[in-house]
Amino acid sequence: MKTYQGLILFVLTFFLSSFTTTLEMDDVVTALKTGNANQLSRYFDNRVDLTLPDKSDNYSRTQAEMILKDFFNSNNVKNFELKHKGENNGSKFCIGILHTKNGNYRTKLFMKLKDNKQVLQEIAFQSE
Description:
Strand order of the largest sheet: 2-1-6-5-4-3
Number of strands: 6
Structural class: alpha+beta
Largest sheet: 6 strands, mixed
């Protein structure tokens, strides 16, 4: 009986953790669709690799949020179109197109599991 309870608990924990990490990626995509740097920054790791058409560096969470806020405001985000997402060894990634009034940007995101939470470690925007 204890074996079955342990197995059920394991399966339930695995299911809920995978469901939660899926929600985190969905929240990140929603933040991109609306150009909401504040909502996006909730998922930042302590340091974030941020690549924009005119600059690229590793920034603190606060710096990355401010830079993204400026980028979103100056480009007036219209939508984010998700093209592909996947998972590899607990890490998640997605690729899409950020539609703005100033043009489209191919966007890549990389999230890694850290302390049982998916955190954004890399964001890249490339002009199309």
